[in-house]
Amino acid sequence: MRFVDLIEKKKKGFEHTKEEIDFIVSSVTKDTVPDYQISAWLMAVYFQGMTEAETAYFTDAIIKSGEVIDLSSIGSSIADKHSTGGVGDKITIILIPLLASCGIPVAKLSGRGLGHTGGTIDKLESIPGFKTDLKISQLIQKVKKNGLAIASQTKKLTPADGKLYALRDVTATVDSMPLIASSVVSKKIASGADFVVLDVKYGSGAFIKTEKDAETLSSLMTGIASKLGRKFNAVISSMAQPLGRMVGNSLEIEESIDFLKGTSTPDIKELTYEIAALTLIHFKKAKDRNEAFNIIDESIQSGKALKSLKKLIKSQGGNPDVINDFKLFKQPLYSFEIKAEQDGFVNNIDAYKIAYACKLLGAGREKKTDSIDYSAGIKLNKIYAEYAKKGETIATLFSDSEEKLSLAEPIVKNAFEFSDETPAERKIVYKVI
Fold first, then answer.
1. Is 118 left (phi over 0), alpha (psi -120 to 50) or beta?
2. What is the pLDDT of residues 58-93, one digit of tens each?
3. What mean pLDDT do residues 375-389 have?
């Protein structure tokens, strides 16, 4: 079998066999073909696409290119959750202790932030002492003991995907539905969980821009998982505006803690409850959404969910006292308040602009090796549908540099739109698949 013939085949729009897909992935993993040929094949896939069967073969081959974590010693069924990336997206940090407090074991592998989206691992590492560099044996042991653990991704899982993504990133082939789907599903299956809820985001702050494309991707990912014997659900949610009030690493941890203490914004509550309810119903902890919502309410109001977060922090070397004293987080050297220039209701806050400004403040990175400022970020003092009088603070910027504040200020100011009329009620969840 020659790789050039497979490029030619896909270029003409023909479907690959399982054997051809296995050969392609094996060639990538073993470095037996040059990057320019793999890049040519990726571009052919970008334009011609892949069938669901092809994508399932491709996903399975990527899974088999590395280790697959065996979590069976924890229990018969393990939950996981994955987000396609958003702005102010701290749902994982809220959801995992919430599920664990309801008796559902969660073993989570997460990534760092890159570009304009934040990473769960960066946010957790803003907690003083918190360690995410766990061996798989340590992850399993902590889940057995506390019901939950979160670790950074290991390079031993899906190595073929890592090599392919590096080429996709420099060949403008990242936004291909089958390539996105195979990358996400392969990592989640290799991580060992058998039930996964995917939070597929669309809008200005997301990689996917429209509801239609989000639905197409969601159906493809859940279909592939089903073909490979796993149960995936997808929640399609809007990322036109940031989630909640806080964007930044330690700031988002603070907002997560406040949620588990009973204080939340409507958007975070809607999305968290939807994902948690799907998981509770799957694990037969609730018979329907209403019962699931009642269970979630009880876990928060009783303090069980917060206690579960405290266990997670303590188990992974962090200082659990941050739950009651936010001053234990790294504090920013400088802050700046942006004032409303008119009276009106907040009609929109552009998620991408907020994310870009947050990165300028020091909370994000261009390369994975870049350092970040855990204290940097943005507090949205006013969010969607709230009224601001002229001169009121609508956002507060935090950074270790006054120069960074001056760079971010006009972008944040420009992200806000106002109207004279009360905006219509906004739903975050578009559809569940």
1. beta
2. 999 999 999 999 999 998 788 999 998 889 999 999
3. 97
Place of tokens 């309410």: 297
Taking CA 415 as the corner, what is the angle to CA 239 and CA 354, rounded to the nearest 5 degrees?
Answer: 55
Alpha-carbon span 249 to 358, nearest angstrom = 10
What topology is assigned to 79-155+190-323 in CATH? Pyrimidine Nucleoside Phosphorylase; Chain A, domain 2 (3.40.1030)
Q: Which two tokens stand for residue 210?
A: 């429209």
DSSP 153: P
In the set 89, 161, 194, 258, the catalytic residue is 161
CA distance 177 to 216: 8
Hey, which CATH number is domain 3-49, 1.10.357.10, 1.20.1250.20, 2.10.25.10, 1.20.970.10? 1.20.970.10
Q: Is 16 among the residues known to form the active site?
A: no
194 tagged catalytic: no
Choosing from 10, 82, 123, 382, the catalytic residue is 82
Tokens of 311: 């266990």
Which residue is catalytic, options 187, 310, 353, 404?
Answer: 187
The question of whether 168 is a catalytic residue gets the answer yes
| β pairing state of 377-380 and 246-248 | antiparallel
Residues in the chain: 433
187 counts as catalytic: yes
Percent of the chain clearing pLDDT 90 (strictly above) = 89
Question: Is residue 87 packed enough to be buried (19+ CB in 10 Å), middle (13-18) or exposed (0-12)?
Answer: buried
161 is known as an active-site residue: yes
Instruction: Encode pLDDT of 129-162 as tens digits.
Output: 999 999 999 999 999 999 999 999 888 899 999 8
Instruction: Determine the CATH number of domain 331-419.
Output: 3.90.1170.30
